[in-house]
Amino acid sequence: QVQLVESGGGLVQAGGSLRLSCAASGFIFSLTPMAWYRQTPGKQRELVASTSVGRTNYADSVRGRFTISRDNAKKTVYLQMDSLKPEDTGVYYCYANPREQGYRDKFGQGTQVTVSS
Fold it and tell me: Where are the beta strands (DSSP E) in 1-117?
């Protein structure tokens, strides 16, 4: 059973930093593309950053400020968020795509990030 558990959200002032973590289980983590999405007020859920074998990708709005990384030994993906802006406020979701292993893709339960001005 694919499980994703996020942590690390919270309240931070503009210009500050947060690091989100997502612990995964139920699939071969090292072979699985992972990503972070967010849903900000009034907008649809959007891709923030993704990582697969040897490749990372970022939304234009966060490139240069956010860094996605993974620790395959710990089966955990991270999102380091620096220079946070009020418009980064939203619910952040971890996403796993283990479909090549025969599992359905999945979002985590989400973690709230609030950036005050």
Answer: 3-7, 10-13, 18-25, 34-39, 46-52, 55-58, 66-71, 76-81, 90-96, 106-107, 111-116
Average pLDDT per consecutive 10 residues, the chain (117 residues; last block may be shorter): 95 98 97 97 94 93 98 98 97 96 95 97
Could you give the count of Cα atoms lying within 13 Å of 67 in the half-sphere of its Cβ?
8
Work out the burial of residue 94: count CB atoms within 10 Å of its CB; fewer than 13 is exposed, 13-18 middle, 19 or more buried: buried
Residue 3's nearest CA partner among 115, 96, 81, 102 is 96
